[in-house]
Amino acid sequence: MTHLIMAVNSGSSSLKFELFSMPEEITLAKGLFERLGTGSAAFTLRAGAGKQQANVALDNHQQAAEHLLDTLLQSGIVASLAQIDGVGHRVAHGGEFFKDSAVIDDAALDEIERLGALAPIHNPVNARGIRAFQRRLPHAVAVGVFDTSFHQTINEAGYLYPLPYRYYQDYGIRRYGFHGTSHKYVAEACAGLLGRRDLRIISCHLGNGASVCAIDGGRSVATSMGFTPLAGLMMGTRCGDIDPSILPFISEHDHKSAQQLLEIMNNASGLLGVSGISNDCRDIVSAAESGNHRAALALAMFTDRIRAVIGAYATVMDGVDVVIFTAGIGENSAGIRREVCRNLGFLGIRLDDNKNKRHATFIQQEGAPVMVTVIPTNEELMIARDVMRVGLAPTQEVQHVG
Ligand code: ADP
Protein backbone atom coordinates (compact mmCIF):
# COMPACT_ATOMS: atom_id res chain seq x y z
CA MET A 1 0.00 0.00 0.00
CA THR A 2 1.28 3.46 -0.90
CA HIS A 3 1.76 6.05 1.86
CA LEU A 4 2.54 9.74 1.55
CA ILE A 5 5.22 10.62 4.07
CA MET A 6 6.57 14.09 4.85
CA ALA A 7 10.16 14.41 6.11
CA VAL A 8 10.71 17.62 8.08
CA ASN A 9 13.90 19.28 9.28
CA SER A 10 13.20 22.35 11.43
CA GLY A 11 16.06 24.78 12.09
CA SER A 12 15.93 27.92 14.19
CA SER A 13 14.88 30.11 11.25
CA SER A 14 14.29 27.47 8.59
CA LEU A 15 12.12 24.50 7.76
CA LYS A 16 13.13 21.95 5.11
CA PHE A 17 10.69 19.37 3.84
CA GLU A 18 10.36 16.53 1.36
CA LEU A 19 7.17 14.67 0.54
CA PHE A 20 7.66 11.04 -0.50
CA SER A 21 5.45 8.37 -1.91
CA MET A 22 6.49 5.27 -0.01
CA PRO A 23 7.55 2.53 -0.20
CA GLU A 24 8.38 3.44 -3.82
CA GLU A 25 10.66 6.20 -2.50
CA ILE A 26 9.46 8.72 -5.07
CA THR A 27 9.82 12.42 -4.24
CA LEU A 28 6.57 14.29 -4.91
CA ALA A 29 7.69 17.69 -3.62
CA LYS A 30 10.59 19.20 -1.73
CA GLY A 31 11.75 22.58 -0.60
CA LEU A 32 12.39 24.91 2.27
CA PHE A 33 11.47 28.02 4.17
CA GLU A 34 14.36 30.32 5.08
CA ARG A 35 14.51 33.44 7.27
CA LEU A 36 11.42 32.50 9.27
CA GLY A 37 10.55 35.16 11.82
CA THR A 38 12.22 38.05 9.99
CA GLY A 39 8.96 39.30 8.48
CA SER A 40 9.77 38.05 4.98
CA ALA A 41 10.49 34.34 4.73
CA ALA A 42 11.74 32.84 1.48
CA PHE A 43 9.73 29.81 0.37
CA THR A 44 10.99 27.42 -2.30
CA LEU A 45 8.99 24.46 -3.56
CA ARG A 46 10.04 22.01 -6.23
CA ALA A 47 7.64 19.45 -7.63
CA GLY A 48 8.35 17.48 -10.80
CA ALA A 49 10.11 19.84 -13.18
CA GLY A 50 8.47 22.91 -11.62
CA LYS A 51 9.88 25.34 -9.09
CA GLN A 52 8.02 28.04 -7.13
CA GLN A 53 9.76 30.75 -5.18
CA ALA A 54 8.04 33.41 -3.10
CA ASN A 55 8.60 35.76 -0.22
CA VAL A 56 5.91 35.23 2.37
CA ALA A 57 5.17 36.97 5.66
CA LEU A 58 5.54 34.05 8.07
CA ASP A 59 6.60 34.39 11.67
CA ASN A 60 7.04 30.85 12.85
CA HIS A 61 7.08 27.14 12.12
CA GLN A 62 3.33 26.80 12.67
CA GLN A 63 2.62 29.33 9.93
CA ALA A 64 5.21 27.72 7.66
CA ALA A 65 3.58 24.30 8.09
CA GLU A 66 0.15 25.82 7.33
CA HIS A 67 1.51 27.61 4.26
CA LEU A 68 3.22 24.46 2.98
CA LEU A 69 0.17 22.24 3.40
CA ASP A 70 -2.15 24.84 1.80
CA THR A 71 0.24 25.15 -1.14
CA LEU A 72 0.39 21.38 -1.60
CA LEU A 73 -3.42 21.33 -1.74
CA GLN A 74 -3.75 24.35 -4.04
CA SER A 75 -1.17 23.06 -6.49
CA GLY A 76 -2.82 19.64 -6.56
CA ILE A 77 0.25 17.81 -5.28
CA VAL A 78 -2.04 16.22 -2.71
CA ALA A 79 -5.81 15.95 -3.18
CA SER A 80 -6.49 16.02 0.54
CA LEU A 81 -4.38 16.34 3.67
CA ALA A 82 -5.79 13.01 4.83
CA GLN A 83 -3.50 11.42 2.22
CA ILE A 84 -0.42 12.30 4.28
CA ASP A 85 -0.28 9.50 6.80
CA GLY A 86 3.11 10.03 8.35
CA VAL A 87 5.45 12.91 9.22
CA GLY A 88 9.06 12.21 10.16
CA HIS A 89 10.93 14.87 12.06
CA ARG A 90 14.68 15.21 12.31
CA VAL A 91 15.44 15.77 16.00
CA ALA A 92 18.93 16.81 17.06
CA HIS A 93 19.20 15.11 20.44
CA GLY A 94 17.70 11.87 21.66
CA GLY A 95 19.98 11.54 24.69
CA GLU A 96 20.12 8.03 26.13
CA PHE A 97 16.33 7.80 26.00
CA PHE A 98 15.83 7.39 22.25
CA LYS A 99 17.90 4.44 21.08
CA ASP A 100 15.99 4.33 17.78
CA SER A 101 13.53 6.46 15.88
CA ALA A 102 10.25 6.64 17.79
CA VAL A 103 6.58 7.48 17.42
CA ILE A 104 6.02 10.89 19.01
CA ASP A 105 3.26 10.81 21.60
CA ASP A 106 2.87 13.35 24.41
CA ALA A 107 5.44 11.59 26.62
CA ALA A 108 8.00 11.47 23.79
CA LEU A 109 7.45 15.16 23.03
CA ASP A 110 8.03 16.00 26.72
CA GLU A 111 11.25 13.98 26.60
CA ILE A 112 12.44 15.82 23.47
CA GLU A 113 11.85 19.13 25.25
CA ARG A 114 13.59 17.89 28.41
CA LEU A 115 16.59 16.98 26.25
CA GLY A 116 16.73 20.65 25.28
CA ALA A 117 19.10 20.90 28.25
CA LEU A 118 21.65 19.08 26.06
CA ALA A 119 20.72 20.76 22.74
CA PRO A 120 19.30 24.18 23.67
CA ILE A 121 19.42 25.58 20.14
CA HIS A 122 17.93 22.61 18.33
CA ASN A 123 15.55 20.47 20.39
CA PRO A 124 13.06 23.23 21.30
CA VAL A 125 12.86 24.20 17.63
CA ASN A 126 12.40 20.55 16.60
CA ALA A 127 9.57 20.26 19.14
CA ARG A 128 7.96 23.37 17.65
CA GLY A 129 8.08 21.76 14.21
CA ILE A 130 6.48 18.57 15.53
CA ARG A 131 3.60 20.52 17.15
CA ALA A 132 3.08 22.58 14.00
CA PHE A 133 2.44 19.53 11.83
CA GLN A 134 0.47 17.68 14.54
CA ARG A 135 -2.04 20.54 14.73
CA ARG A 136 -2.81 20.45 11.02
CA LEU A 137 -2.35 16.69 10.47
CA PRO A 138 -3.73 15.14 13.66
CA HIS A 139 -4.45 11.83 11.88
CA ALA A 140 -0.85 11.38 10.69
CA VAL A 141 1.66 9.40 12.74
CA ALA A 142 4.58 11.58 13.85
CA VAL A 143 7.99 9.92 14.13
CA GLY A 144 11.14 11.46 15.60
CA VAL A 145 14.42 10.52 13.90
CA PHE A 146 17.33 11.48 16.13
CA ASP A 147 20.84 12.53 15.03
CA THR A 148 22.18 10.68 18.08
CA SER A 149 20.29 7.38 18.23
CA PHE A 150 22.41 5.45 15.70
CA HIS A 151 25.38 5.92 18.04
CA GLN A 152 23.64 4.45 21.09
CA THR A 153 25.35 1.14 20.24
CA ILE A 154 28.79 2.59 21.14
CA ASN A 155 30.05 0.86 24.27
CA GLU A 156 30.64 2.45 27.66
CA ALA A 157 34.41 2.71 27.23
CA GLY A 158 33.79 4.48 23.92
CA TYR A 159 31.21 6.98 25.10
CA LEU A 160 32.52 7.99 28.53
CA TYR A 161 34.89 10.92 29.02
CA PRO A 162 37.68 10.48 31.54
CA LEU A 163 36.20 13.16 33.81
CA PRO A 164 34.96 12.50 37.37
CA TYR A 165 32.25 9.85 36.90
CA ARG A 166 29.60 11.95 38.63
CA TYR A 167 29.46 14.34 35.67
CA TYR A 168 28.06 11.48 33.64
CA GLN A 169 25.68 10.44 36.42
CA ASP A 170 24.49 13.92 37.36
CA TYR A 171 24.46 15.72 34.01
CA GLY A 172 24.61 13.04 31.31
CA ILE A 173 27.99 14.30 30.10
CA ARG A 174 29.18 11.66 27.62
CA ARG A 175 29.79 11.25 23.92
CA TYR A 176 26.47 11.13 22.03
CA GLY A 177 27.64 11.60 18.45
CA PHE A 178 25.60 13.21 15.65
CA HIS A 179 24.99 12.81 11.87
CA GLY A 180 23.63 9.35 12.77
CA THR A 181 20.91 9.43 10.11
CA SER A 182 23.45 10.13 7.39
CA HIS A 183 26.00 7.55 8.58
CA LYS A 184 23.25 4.93 8.82
CA TYR A 185 21.89 5.78 5.37
CA VAL A 186 25.23 5.49 3.56
CA ALA A 187 26.19 2.33 5.49
CA GLU A 188 22.91 0.69 4.45
CA ALA A 189 23.33 1.88 0.87
CA CYS A 190 26.86 0.45 0.85
CA ALA A 191 25.68 -2.90 2.26
CA GLY A 192 23.02 -2.90 -0.47
CA LEU A 193 25.58 -2.18 -3.22
CA LEU A 194 27.84 -4.98 -2.03
CA GLY A 195 25.08 -7.41 -1.09
CA ARG A 196 26.53 -8.06 2.37
CA ARG A 197 26.08 -6.71 5.88
CA ASP A 198 29.15 -8.08 7.68
CA LEU A 199 31.22 -5.03 6.76
CA ARG A 200 33.64 -2.91 8.77
CA ILE A 201 32.86 0.54 7.42
CA ILE A 202 34.46 3.91 8.10
CA SER A 203 31.97 6.56 7.02
CA CYS A 204 33.25 10.11 6.44
CA HIS A 205 30.44 12.69 6.41
CA LEU A 206 32.24 15.82 5.20
CA GLY A 207 29.95 18.82 4.82
CA ASN A 208 29.88 22.12 6.68
CA GLY A 209 29.69 19.93 9.75
CA ALA A 210 31.90 16.85 9.54
CA SER A 211 32.22 13.58 11.39
CA VAL A 212 33.63 10.10 10.95
CA CYS A 213 31.86 6.96 12.15
CA ALA A 214 33.09 3.37 12.53
CA ILE A 215 30.28 0.94 11.67
CA ASP A 216 30.75 -2.76 12.36
CA GLY A 217 28.06 -5.04 10.91
CA GLY A 218 25.61 -2.13 10.64
CA ARG A 219 26.19 -0.85 14.21
CA SER A 220 27.97 2.38 15.12
CA VAL A 221 30.96 1.51 17.34
CA ALA A 222 32.80 4.86 17.37
CA THR A 223 32.20 8.39 16.14
CA SER A 224 34.14 11.63 16.21
CA MET A 225 31.47 14.09 17.40
CA GLY A 226 30.93 14.04 21.12
CA PHE A 227 28.82 15.64 23.81
CA THR A 228 28.00 18.25 21.17
CA PRO A 229 28.59 18.55 17.39
CA LEU A 230 31.59 20.79 18.13
CA ALA A 231 33.89 17.84 18.83
CA GLY A 232 36.11 15.74 16.58
CA LEU A 233 37.17 16.89 13.13
CA MET A 234 37.97 20.42 12.05
CA MET A 235 34.90 21.74 10.18
CA GLY A 236 33.73 24.77 8.15
CA THR A 237 33.50 27.07 11.17
CA ARG A 238 33.99 24.66 14.12
CA CYS A 239 37.37 23.85 15.61
CA GLY A 240 36.73 20.21 16.55
CA ASP A 241 39.04 18.74 19.19
CA ILE A 242 41.51 21.16 20.76
CA ASP A 243 43.43 21.16 24.02
CA PRO A 244 40.74 22.19 26.56
CA SER A 245 43.26 24.28 28.52
CA ILE A 246 43.25 26.75 25.64
CA LEU A 247 39.82 27.94 26.80
CA PRO A 248 40.68 29.35 30.24
CA PHE A 249 43.87 30.76 28.67
CA ILE A 250 41.94 32.73 26.01
CA SER A 251 39.33 33.65 28.58
CA GLU A 252 41.96 35.23 30.80
CA HIS A 253 44.19 36.83 28.16
CA ASP A 254 41.57 37.86 25.57
CA HIS A 255 38.78 38.52 28.12
CA LYS A 256 36.15 36.19 26.74
CA SER A 257 33.15 34.76 28.56
CA ALA A 258 32.16 31.08 28.29
CA GLN A 259 29.44 32.09 25.83
CA GLN A 260 31.89 34.07 23.70
CA LEU A 261 34.32 31.14 23.68
CA LEU A 262 31.56 28.83 22.45
CA GLU A 263 30.71 31.34 19.73
CA ILE A 264 34.36 31.50 18.62
CA MET A 265 34.76 27.72 18.56
CA ASN A 266 31.44 27.13 16.76
CA ASN A 267 31.31 30.01 14.30
CA ALA A 268 34.73 31.59 13.83
CA SER A 269 37.10 28.60 13.76
CA GLY A 270 37.76 25.65 11.45
CA LEU A 271 38.41 26.33 7.74
CA LEU A 272 37.18 29.91 8.21
CA GLY A 273 39.26 30.65 11.29
CA VAL A 274 42.53 29.28 9.89
CA SER A 275 42.18 30.56 6.31
CA GLY A 276 40.57 33.91 7.18
CA ILE A 277 38.80 33.55 3.81
CA SER A 278 35.64 31.46 4.02
CA ASN A 279 34.01 28.45 5.61
CA ASP A 280 33.13 27.15 2.14
CA CYS A 281 35.53 24.44 1.07
CA ARG A 282 35.31 25.45 -2.62
CA ASP A 283 36.59 28.96 -1.81
CA ILE A 284 39.45 27.49 0.22
CA VAL A 285 40.42 25.07 -2.56
CA SER A 286 40.53 27.83 -5.16
CA ALA A 287 42.48 30.18 -2.86
CA ALA A 288 44.97 27.36 -2.13
CA GLU A 289 45.33 26.73 -5.88
CA SER A 290 46.20 30.38 -6.38
CA GLY A 291 48.97 30.10 -3.82
CA ASN A 292 47.32 31.34 -0.61
CA HIS A 293 49.33 29.82 2.22
CA ARG A 294 46.68 29.91 4.93
CA ALA A 295 44.10 28.32 2.64
CA ALA A 296 46.53 25.49 1.85
CA LEU A 297 47.29 25.18 5.56
CA ALA A 298 43.57 24.96 6.43
CA LEU A 299 43.12 22.17 3.88
CA ALA A 300 46.15 20.27 5.18
CA MET A 301 44.84 20.54 8.74
CA PHE A 302 41.36 19.43 7.65
CA THR A 303 42.54 16.35 5.76
CA ASP A 304 45.25 15.38 8.31
CA ARG A 305 42.60 15.12 11.02
CA ILE A 306 40.26 12.98 8.94
CA ARG A 307 43.12 10.65 8.00
CA ALA A 308 44.15 10.27 11.65
CA VAL A 309 40.61 9.30 12.66
CA ILE A 310 40.39 6.74 9.84
CA GLY A 311 43.62 5.19 11.12
CA ALA A 312 42.24 5.13 14.68
CA TYR A 313 38.94 3.57 13.67
CA ALA A 314 40.65 0.79 11.73
CA THR A 315 42.11 -0.23 15.10
CA VAL A 316 38.67 -0.06 16.77
CA MET A 317 37.32 -2.67 14.32
CA ASP A 318 40.52 -4.70 13.87
CA GLY A 319 40.59 -3.60 10.24
CA VAL A 320 38.39 -1.93 7.66
CA ASP A 321 36.58 -3.23 4.57
CA VAL A 322 35.09 0.00 3.16
CA VAL A 323 35.70 3.73 3.48
CA ILE A 324 32.70 5.85 2.48
CA PHE A 325 32.84 9.52 1.49
CA THR A 326 29.61 11.50 1.68
CA ALA A 327 28.06 15.03 2.06
CA GLY A 328 29.04 18.18 0.13
CA ILE A 329 32.83 17.84 0.37
CA GLY A 330 32.97 14.03 0.49
CA GLU A 331 30.75 13.66 -2.58
CA ASN A 332 32.26 16.43 -4.70
CA SER A 333 35.90 17.00 -3.92
CA ALA A 334 38.24 14.47 -5.52
CA GLY A 335 41.19 16.51 -4.20
CA ILE A 336 40.11 16.22 -0.56
CA ARG A 337 39.45 12.48 -0.97
CA ARG A 338 42.91 12.04 -2.48
CA GLU A 339 44.57 13.93 0.38
CA VAL A 340 42.60 12.05 3.04
CA CYS A 341 43.64 8.69 1.58
CA ARG A 342 47.30 9.69 1.19
CA ASN A 343 49.54 7.56 3.47
CA LEU A 344 46.77 5.05 4.13
CA GLY A 345 48.21 2.53 1.66
CA PHE A 346 49.59 0.48 4.58
CA LEU A 347 45.94 -0.16 5.61
CA GLY A 348 45.07 -1.29 2.10
CA ILE A 349 43.36 2.01 1.19
CA ARG A 350 44.57 2.88 -2.34
CA LEU A 351 42.71 5.27 -4.62
CA ASP A 352 42.51 5.03 -8.39
CA ASP A 353 43.11 8.61 -9.56
CA ASN A 354 40.90 8.39 -12.62
CA LYS A 355 37.94 6.81 -10.84
CA ASN A 356 38.33 9.35 -8.04
CA LYS A 357 38.31 12.29 -10.46
CA ARG A 358 35.21 10.88 -12.18
CA HIS A 359 33.46 10.54 -8.77
CA ALA A 360 32.80 6.88 -9.62
CA THR A 361 30.86 4.90 -7.02
CA PHE A 362 33.93 2.76 -6.24
CA ILE A 363 37.22 4.63 -6.45
CA GLN A 364 39.78 2.14 -5.11
CA GLN A 365 42.52 0.64 -7.28
CA GLU A 366 41.89 -2.71 -8.89
CA GLY A 367 42.78 -5.41 -6.37
CA ALA A 368 43.10 -3.04 -3.37
CA PRO A 369 42.00 -4.81 -0.17
CA VAL A 370 39.84 -1.91 1.05
CA MET A 371 36.97 -0.56 -1.00
CA VAL A 372 36.52 3.21 -1.16
CA THR A 373 33.16 4.52 -2.22
CA VAL A 374 31.36 7.82 -2.86
CA ILE A 375 27.72 7.62 -1.77
CA PRO A 376 25.44 10.69 -1.81
CA THR A 377 23.70 10.94 1.55
CA ASN A 378 19.93 11.27 1.78
CA GLU A 379 18.79 12.00 5.32
CA GLU A 380 15.25 12.88 4.21
CA LEU A 381 14.78 9.47 2.61
CA MET A 382 16.16 7.77 5.72
CA ILE A 383 13.58 9.72 7.77
CA ALA A 384 10.75 8.61 5.46
CA ARG A 385 11.94 5.00 5.70
CA ASP A 386 11.95 5.23 9.48
CA VAL A 387 8.39 6.56 9.49
CA MET A 388 7.42 3.46 7.53
CA ARG A 389 9.44 1.15 9.78
CA VAL A 390 8.47 2.42 13.23
CA GLY A 391 5.26 4.33 12.53
CA LEU A 392 3.39 2.45 9.83
CA ALA A 393 4.73 -1.11 9.71
CA PRO A 394 1.87 -3.53 10.31
CA THR A 395 1.93 -4.65 13.96
CA GLN A 396 3.40 -8.12 14.20
CA GLU A 397 0.82 -10.75 15.06
CA VAL A 398 1.96 -12.86 17.99
CA GLN A 399 2.44 -16.38 16.76
CA HIS A 400 1.04 -18.94 19.16
CA VAL A 401 2.83 -22.17 18.55
CA GLY A 402 1.65 -25.35 19.84
P1 ADP B 1 25.75 20.99 5.24
O1 ADP B 1 26.56 20.43 6.37
O2 ADP B 1 25.49 22.46 5.36
O3 ADP B 1 24.57 20.15 4.81
P2 ADP B 1 26.88 20.14 2.71
O4 ADP B 1 26.87 18.68 2.93
O5 ADP B 1 25.95 20.72 1.70
O6 ADP B 1 26.80 20.94 4.06
O7 ADP B 1 28.38 20.53 2.30
C1 ADP B 1 28.74 21.86 2.10
C2 ADP B 1 30.24 21.90 1.82
O8 ADP B 1 30.52 21.13 0.65
C3 ADP B 1 30.75 23.30 1.57
O9 ADP B 1 31.93 23.52 2.30
C4 ADP B 1 31.05 23.28 0.08
O10 ADP B 1 32.11 24.14 -0.25
C5 ADP B 1 31.49 21.85 -0.10
N1 ADP B 1 31.56 21.47 -1.51
C6 ADP B 1 30.54 21.31 -2.39
N2 ADP B 1 31.04 21.02 -3.62
C7 ADP B 1 32.40 21.01 -3.51
C8 ADP B 1 33.50 20.78 -4.39
N3 ADP B 1 33.30 20.50 -5.67
N4 ADP B 1 34.75 20.86 -3.89
C9 ADP B 1 34.97 21.15 -2.60
N5 ADP B 1 33.98 21.36 -1.73
C10 ADP B 1 32.73 21.29 -2.16
UniProtKB/TrEMBL annotation:
Keyword Kinase among record annotations: yes
Binding of Mg(2+), residues: N9, E379
Keyword tags: ATP-binding, Cytoplasm, Kinase, Magnesium, Metal-binding, Nucleotide-binding, Transferase
Family annotation (SUPFAM superfamilies): Actin-like ATPase domain
Active site: D147
Transmembrane helix keyword on record: no
The enzyme's E.C. designation: 2.7.2.1
Pathway(s) served: Metabolic intermediate biosynthesis; acetyl-CoA biosynthesis; acetyl-CoA from acetate: step 1/2
Binding site residues for substrate: R90
Positions with a binding annotation for ATP: K16, H205, L206, G207, N208, G209, D280, C281, R282, G328, I329, G330, E331, N332
Molecular function in Gene Ontology: acetate kinase activity; ATP binding; magnesium ion binding
Pfam families referenced in this protein's UniProt entry, alphabetically: Acetate_kinase
Catalytic activity: acetate + ATP = acetyl phosphate + ADP
Example GO BP: acetyl-CoA biosynthetic process
Subunit: Homodimer.
Family: Belongs to the acetokinase family.
Protein name: Acetate kinase
Gene it is expressed from: ackA
